[in-house]
Design a protein that fits this description.
Blueprint: E1 4-9, E2 12-16, H1 22-36, E3 46-48, H2 57-69, E4 79-81, H3 84-105, E5 109-117, E6 124-135, E7 139-141, H4 143-152, H5 156-176, E8 184-188, H6 190-195, H7 198-208, E9 216-220, H8 222-225, H9 230-242, E10 245-246
Helix pairs in contact: 5-7
Amino acid sequence: EGSAYARYSDDHFIVLTSETNAHEKTEALARWLHEHQGEAFLDLKVGAYKAEEGVGVSISIDHARFACNSIKMNAEKHFCIYDNSLYEKQKRKQYIINHLDFAIENEYIEVFYQPVIWTKNKKVCGLEALSRWRDPEYGLLPPGEFIETLEDVCMIHKLDKYVVDKVCKDYNEAKKSGKKLLPISLNFSQLDFNLCDMVEYVIDTAKKYNVPKEYLEIEITESALSKEHELLKNAMQRFRDAGFNIW
């Protein structure tokens, strides 16, 4: 009470307050919601930013929203204040977004091959292609960091198309040098099929580098499968019709 507040969008609200016990009030309101929610699940997440001189309203709101988003997947936490650690995280996230194309062009993103081993005879029966970003400024970026960021801003298809191209190119070079060849699995998410025609891209790239269909395994992440999306089912059928195996 007594604070300025407004609806920002959907179920997002902004409050400008001088209250020093906002954290406690948030926790109390969250408990009240849980007690009165009935069949509909309602949860409260609050991100806060302490106003600083020279920082405009728009940036202040962005900081508060970033703090709020950082706890969305944490069921136990309802309040988060923007601090230096979140600033660094936000800075790295923006760096990833701004430098993805540059990293791809300069091959800062590397493809590593993790062996797939039969448990019965302990023999390697295939490989899984994994991407690692070796950045000149930040060093080795954790995949959980840059993959999550690229999914959040709908740029993950750029990374996955690059991996498809690199895997097919590596296969072609390995074949020419007489190395033993094994099937390689490629990871895809739901977004890949929303953002581009990934099926056509895989087929065209495999053809470009003369990679037989049986040497590419299509791996769909569990989170994508859980959505039962018609587009995804159609994509898997197209992969099957083209001769690819699906994990």
